[in-house]
Amino acid sequence: MCGSVFVEYIFCQMMNTTGGIVRHVVLVHGDCDGIIAGALFVKHFLRDQYPSDILLGFTQPWRASKEIRRLCRENQCDSLTLIDIAIDREIFSMIVDITMKGVPIQIIDHHATTEPWVGKMRDLGLKVVWDKSPSTPRLMASKMKLSINSYEERLIRVADTCEGTDDEDEEIKGIADSIKLAISRDPGDIEFMKELFDSIVLNRDLKSIESLEKKAYIGKLLLNKLIDKAISKGENIGEVVLSYIHPSESRLFAGLFGIASTELSKKLKRDVILVRNEDDKIVVTIRSTKGRALQYCKTLVEALGGGKYGGHREAASATLAKRDVLEVIARIRDLVWEIQRGRERK
Prior knowledge:
Layout: E1 24-29, H1 32-45, E2 54-59, H2 64-71, E3 79-83, H3 89-100, E4 105-109, H4 115-123, E5 127-130, H5 136-143, H6 150-162, H7 170-185, H8 190-201, H9 210-232, E6 235-237, E7 240-245, H10 247-250, H11 257-268, E8 271-278, E9 281-287, H12 293-304, E10 308-311, E11 315-321, H13 325-345
Parallel strand pairs: 1-2, 1-3, 3-4, 4-5, 7-8
Antiparallel strand pairs: 6-7, 8-9, 9-11, 10-11
Helix pairs in contact: 1-6, 1-8, 5-6, 6-7, 7-9, 9-11, 12-13
């Protein structure tokens, strides 16, 4: 299996050069700031072990618990580091099980939804690096006292920009946009993520990655199409625009919904909720200029009696078990009105 993709979001190198089983597991969020954070972690703390002694994985928060289970099978890992992955009840339960086997775990994350679990994880003896921060790389530079060079400082600014911070440097913004679009265009392209990761570890110019510009160009074309569709299908609910993208269309746009919702919210200067069917689940992506994204997600999951959500006040998403999408849309419509009216009464 060495070098193969064994689940949608995982790249692995199972054996080291001597044929022994890799013991250090590093699982990162497969997005712009997650990959930068993971590469900085390996570069500063595991450089001598990489890549021969590292089992490296890229995941998305909604399936992170499955990847942790797969990567940390019995007797396979001596340590586990989770980077830029929002902690929820399911992941915390997995962490408890692994900790009970004597495996040391480190958490490095900046998501708001991780905060309720920080104390519990520290009580288990985990090393937790968490705080509110523009990005996980920025958090690492601050809390882990990294001695960073000028190359890494620019990367941290790129990560901040990927997460929504405005940067006056057009080159920084351009690189951030290219990385976001390239990854989002095909979130299953593990080889590309690995190439990006390795380039950072080796201090290479990211613009030297041949496929980056092409992927970003195609991603931009598709992003514009998705934004146009979301606008044409949009329903105004007070201060919110709600749009449902049919599965026959949403498959084409892969991981672009996060960027599309952000751009749409900026363009309309309103909160945006995008709903789509994806395989065996329904995904709700929310961007809020008023900081209500997490509130919408939390209220929706509670109202429907199950699901997962995570993110930040301005940008969050909810993953729901497969059900009638019209029921979900109707419930979103009702909840949005309730939240808005509740705020008006205050």
